[in-house]
Amino acid sequence: MLNEKEVLDFQKDWGDGIVSIGNTYNCGGDYKNESLDFINRLYAYSNEKVFFKPTLASEVQFRLDLESALSYFIGENESFPEDSGFAIKGWSSVRWQNIGIKIIDDIAICMGNYFFMKNEEELKVEYTIILKKINGNLKMILHDSHLPYSQ
Known about the structure:
Blueprint: H1 4-26, H2 31-42, E1 51-53, H3 66-74, E2 93-104, E3 107-118, E4 121-134, E5 137-146
């Protein structure tokens, strides 16, 4: 069984990881290995199938393996030319706003908005995530993220 505090800690860890990858990139550090560690630590790709629909992906909408997820976060993969590297865009913070967290045994379903801060402006993104406790650690098994509808 898991609890809401673990879910909130996971979300904070995810947001801090996105900011850290961008900082490492901007300082000329090893952002690729940091990104791989981020994905391996927070996504369940090494344990089971992960359903990932990133915010800014439209040509290859779904990222079902580690290579395609890494490409989304840092770019630099000619198989995914639309990827400019979401995690290296220079975000200064990520703020989560859950509209609900539902816990069922070792699974948490979360929905809401998260806000990515950059240069005093926030980018609002809608999300649904499903977390599963695997070997004592929460891992994402579903991550659906998109910009709000506009006409």
